Every structure is written in structure tokens, then in C-alpha cells.
Predict the structure.
Amino acid sequence: ERFEFDLKLVDGVPGAPGLIASIADNKDLAVVTVTAKASGPVDAWNAHVNAQTGQMGVLDVSLAGDRREGEVVDLALTFVPGSALSDLPQPLQVTAAVTHSGEVYSTDSLNIVAGDAGLTGKAMLADPLGTPHLTLSGDAVKLSAVAGVQVPDIIGLVVDLRSDASMTQIDVETLSVEADGLAASFAGRVDLDAGLMSGLAVVETADIAPWAKLAEVDAAGALQARADIQTLWFDGRIDGDVTAEFAPTHLPIDGLAEVI
């Protein structure tokens, strides 16, 4: 049994923003055009969606493969930022060969490219329409091109997140980053409703220089730090305990590193 699906949605016209722009209160979404097509056997249909989202950019998604349990579906996504997102790397591309068992979707061939930077690895998403559980592990490469400062060529990433159905209460089982001279991790809870988070953060680095530059701080030296965060509000207030050992070799204030 085969089926055909063809849909085109146009929201807004030049000079007269549509409903999406009104709801989002964003004039960059004044004109949005979405086309969606799907065809083929019920268990192995191909699909293509193209969304031209005004000044925000163009999103293109395609799916092809066998949707039966244990079979492979190839996913390809491309997003080209528009003038409203000109600071983002161009383009963003995601490809993966996805299999599923029940409500568990997984891939061992995740590939994300953002400009010259990229990430390869594997991922799993369980119960996406209920209480989602996401795991991801892989290596990010050439992030210097995106970060604007020199960082290690390869950065390892491990993520394990669980959320409630509203996706406002997020349990961070594991969030870890490893690179040459760096090991950092966080485990805790994020409450998006209350605008706060709590947990344990640990950082150990042989030299904070490349990471400090990300925050536009001119500092260098070895650091070991542990933060037991009772509450960190999104406005910057924090309640918790921090212990650290810092051996600075350079600080923004002349002579301070030598004094310390």
C-alpha cells in the first residue's frame, strides 16, 4: 500500500507579517513558507520538508528508509542561517542513520557540521513524546573556528539528560567535557520554571588560558575547582560552596600572578 502527501503553507506576505510573526513577536518571521512532501509504501516512505523562515533562515529536512522496527532510516538536515542569524556558522548540517525499537531511537553515525567545526558520535532518544531521555557521546573537532579563540583540536563530549513531559524539569545525569589538558563535568538539576539550577561541577585544567579567553578574560595557569551548587539562579546569584586550587601564571592585573 502506497500513499502520497503534499502540503504547502504560506504565512504572511511582504509588508503584512503573518500569524507566526505575531505569536513569536518577531518581525524576522514576517513571511514563512513551508512545503512538505512524502510518498512511498507505508513502511518505507520518503519525506522532504523545506521551511523558509523569513530572515531567520532556511531549514531543509529529508527522511528515507524502512520504518519497521530495527531497520534504518537516513536523516539529513540542513539549516542555512538568514540575515537575522548572520553570526551563526553556515551552514549547519546533521546526518544520521537512525534505528528504533519501540519508543527508543538511536544512531551510531551522528554527524553534525557547523561551518568548519563538527561533531561525530552516537546518540539515543527514548520516549520523546513522554518523558524524554537523551544520551550523546562523541568528539567535537575544529571548534576554534566557531569559538573565535584557539582551543584543543579534539574535545570529547558525553551527555545524559532526562526531562519531565513539559521539558521544564531536566535532570542532568552526566555532562562531561574532556580535551588535552581539560576535564570538566556537571551533574544536577535544571528548573526552567523557577529559573535556577543545582548540582556538582568539577573542573581540572593544566591551563585555563584558552577557556578564559572564551569569556574574554586574559588569564593563565593550572586550576582545580569543585562547586557544590545549592542554587544558581539564572540572573547570576549563587548559593553554594566552592573550593579551588589555582596556580596563576598570568592575570589581567600586572604583577598579581607573581604576588600570588
